[in-house]
Design brief:
By secondary structure, the chain is α+β, with helices and mostly antiparallel strands. The chain is built from 11 helices and 9 strands.
Length: 284
């Protein structure tokens, strides 16, 4: 097989250098843009280290030595925060109409964290109840957490039966590929299956074929909410949240999505700056 080009390796490391983040050989393979075995990736990285093109320490690889130090420094904190995320994920899962909970953002990639950073969650909801679910989650955050984003940042909610993402680029592909299941791994497989375009960016990511739908029986409380609030309340929530997101989203860097089947809210997203960072590498 043809050797992996140094540029393919450096593309991966350059992307994560935006966050000053080092990667393991397994992580490099996951985000590599060409098909490769783990052995080919490991051997290719060793050659680049020997040639002085990249740095390596304790099994981490990066374009700059500072990233290696930071990865080691924050590893224990990240493991503690990952344990915390699992606990919060179990709690979120008991909210009405929640069907799956997944960790996204920096911690899902074991990136640089502080004890005060927020935790980013991706939520799957009962079909037709995206906005009602968001209402209960946000109400809890405002009342009991005093509107703190610290441990309860709900960026993306999607209908369990409509999981195809509208935005398709390397950034969103990275987010999909790095999701960590906190509740309902079947749902994560379904997300990957419905977004198999991720393979165009990361051919080494395992994407399952067609995944069967599993209909979860409504709880007694969910039946009561459907009977008393129903679709009218769902539409009311969507209208109110849309106004809020449109008002508070940074017009230059922010992004929000308000659809019947999805709610995405990133008022200050790094996406545009990150894509520009990657574009600079591609133009070198």
């Amino acid at each position: 097989m043809k050797p992996i080009s140094p540029k393919a390796f450096k593309q991966v490391l350059h992307y994560f250098s935006f966050f000053n983040h080092a990667l393991s050989a397994e992580e490099v393979r996951q985000y590599l843009s060409v098909p490769a075995t783990q052995q080919e990736v490991t051997e290719g990285l060793k050659v680049l280290v020997q040639e002085g093109l990249i740095y390596c320490q304790n099994g981490w690889f990066a374009l700059a030595p500072d990233a290696l130090v930071l990865r080691a420094k924050y590893e224990r904190l990240n493991l503690r925060r990952l344990k915390l995320a699992h606990s919060i994920g179990r709690f979120i899962a008991v909210f009405p109409f929640v069907r799956g909970v997944y960790l996204s953002g920096s911690l899902s990639k074991m990136g640089i964290q502080s004890k005060d950073d927020d935790l980013d969650f991706f939520i799957l909801t009962r079909s037709g109840r995206v906005w009602t679910t968001k209402f209960f989650l946000i109400a809890f955050k405002k009342i009991f957490l005093l509107n703190s984003e610290k441990y309860f940042c709900i960026n993306l909610l999607m209908d369990e039966n409509q999981l195809s993402l509208a935005k398709r680029n390397r950034y969103t592909a990275t987010e999909v590929a790095s999701l960590i299941t906190l509740r309902n791994d079947h749902g994560r497989e379904k997300v990957l299956s419905m977004n198999d375009w991720v393979k165009n960016y990361f051919p080494n990511v395992e994407v399952p074929g067609a995944v069967e739908n599993r209909v979860q029986t409504l709880s007694v409380f969910e039946r009561i909410l459907n009977a008393t609030l129903g679709d009218a309340f769902e539409r009311w929530c969507k209208a109110r949240f849309t106004i809020h997101m449109r008002t508070h989203t940074n017009k230059e860097e922010g992004y929000f999505e308000s659809e019947t089947y999805s709610s995405a809210y990133y008022p200050h997203s790094v996406e545009q700056r990150l894509m520009k960072h990657l574009e600079e590498f591609e133009n070198e």
